[in-house]
Amino acid sequence: MQNKSVFILAIESSCDDTAAAVLHNDKVLSNVVANQLIHQQYGGVIPELASRAHQQNIVPVIDAALKKAGVKKEQLNAIAFTQGPGLMGSLLVGSSFAKSLAMSLQIPLIAVNHMHAHILAHYIDEDGYDKPTFPFLALTISGGHTQIVKVNAFFDLEIIGETTDDAVGEAFDKSAKILGLPYPGGPLIDKYAQLGNPKAFSFTKPKVPNLDFSFSGLKTQILYFIQKKVDENPNFIDENLNDICASIQNIIIEILMDKLKLAIASTGINQIAIGGGVSANSGIRKTLKEAEAKYGWKTFVPKFEYTTDNAAMIGIVGYQKYLSEHFETQNVISKARIEF
Ligand code: KG4
Ligand code: ZN
By C-alpha distance, which of 96, 56, 129 is closest to 305? Predict the structure, then answer.
């Protein structure tokens, strides 16, 4: 089926972004995301509100993706949707819509693992983007996930390290909350960190064996540190915000880099591809680029719109599954937790 011209509509609704994309083979024709701002006032994602917002957004978002791509639904060859992992109420909105549309158009239905999609996002065909070759290591860092995956082939993936508690994005967001910054605080920590001294305050790294991560102890450490400093000086946060953010970002980057070095040493693979919302972090991007010259690594950082939650990445897995005729029946179920 390699030479066939394939149009795929992809739908992503695993958390708090309603997204739809249209792909022509491995090229993205449209990639539409509706962010749910409602969660900002609660300081985190409220599952019940997320599924309601998906209900409101899904039709306009899919409509916009088709229009932007200039593709009529009758031209579609398959519908791909996120099967999991994610919030059940959110996943069900996307999967129900995908099933109904695939049934009415009488075209194949393709279920996609969201984490698999974050990794294969590197295979979206973009001018000037050099794709990793197999095998490579994927570092997936977002608000919900932190994993190091050994990717041997499109459908041969092995998790070799993951968080035992909080995800990296939570470490950023929870630290930001302690500092009184709004949700999601990751981008703000990044912004202030650029103006601060990363060595101003030191935090200790968690001791986690092998390639696994832990971030909940770091959050507690930051909380106690800030409480103590604010007791001594109520203006401590305002007076030191840039340095605090730079120091928090620095320790998080050191934790990630230590595990990457270990993963490279134990696998002998030195191609690192990053994905997930946290890979937008300027400090992480800079450190990885520097590692190319410093350690001879080859690093892959996709376009920003393909690293945060999006449907184009669901579409690229959909395309690979289409080529290998990996289709689902209408009985397929959404899964809050799912393996590769
Ligand atoms: O992949 P994503 O959009 O959604 C999922 O969690 O799946 O990732 C969102 C996470 C949030 O925790 C957010 O604070 C973090 O990515 N994030 C950042 C930056 N931009 C987004 N963290 C640090 N620095 C950034 N520049
Ligand atoms: Zn994600």
Answer: 129
